[in-house]
Give the backbone structure.
Amino acid sequence: MLRNFKTSIRTAGLIGKFRSPDVAASLPIMAAFLYDRGVRVLIEESTAASIGASQHEVVSYETMGAEADVAIVLGGDGTLLFAARRLAEFGVPLVGVNQGRLGFMTDIGRDEMLAGVQQLLDGRFSIESRVLLEAEVWRNGERVFRHLALNDVVVNKGDIGRMIEMKVEVDGTFLYLLRADGMIVCTPTGSTAYALSANGPILHPKLAGIGIVPLCPHALSNRPITISDDSRVDITLLSPSEGRIHFDGQSRFDAHPGDCVRITGATVRVTLLHPPSYDYFAMLREKLHWSEMPEP
């Protein structure tokens, strides 16, 4: 369960993008800034190893999850996705400082990172809860793999150069047989990621929904749909199709004919903290290069 966030931050965890020169330069500045304000600083161990940080406490994700009041992630959305999955079970809120490219979730700019974190320390922030997906792979009646995803679970054709065939069910009810390059099942958070490039709908983060988006379907009538986030999606690979299952584009599992990928909303959620200036629609306009606001 998510714990109540403390406006008085006494311990902060720092997580950085692996082997990033920008993070190597920014993270010590952030650590010193927090330390000077009486905040205990914990640096995630692989981050510390990649940038050579040793003057603060170096800890595992488990220790950070147990002891930190907040985790500050310096990097892009990929770094935040990884950290969110590792810390989800502990309920640690996350703040993203964008050191990457688009930055849909890392919404504090690198040039404003100290001012943004000062606002956080002052209690000036908004809290947002994001749903996770839990995916299980079942083979011959046994669960052989389990993983969380904040963006999406993707079942695709892997290395083969042809379409695969899948049976898709929702809450035990047959939906359709799909011949396609694959299928994306996404959260509202992930609706602006891979699913967006496959013509899936953008789902507002407050929407209690899951997107089902076919990848290059053979039948043009197979369109994206949105279902309730308390639904269960079963995707079964039909013989002779083999496939590959991807979780947030960062972990994968090779699937065999007959394997069933079972996807549900996870029991844990991710809490994101945003600066006072955060506006979801303004973020979409900026990142997706939509038209500017009209003149008053």
Remarks:
- The mean pLDDT is 92.
- The domain at 132-267 is CATH 2.60.200.30 (Tumour Suppressor Smad4).
- The two ends are 45 Å apart (CA to CA).
- The CA atoms of residues 282 and 293 lie 9 Å apart.
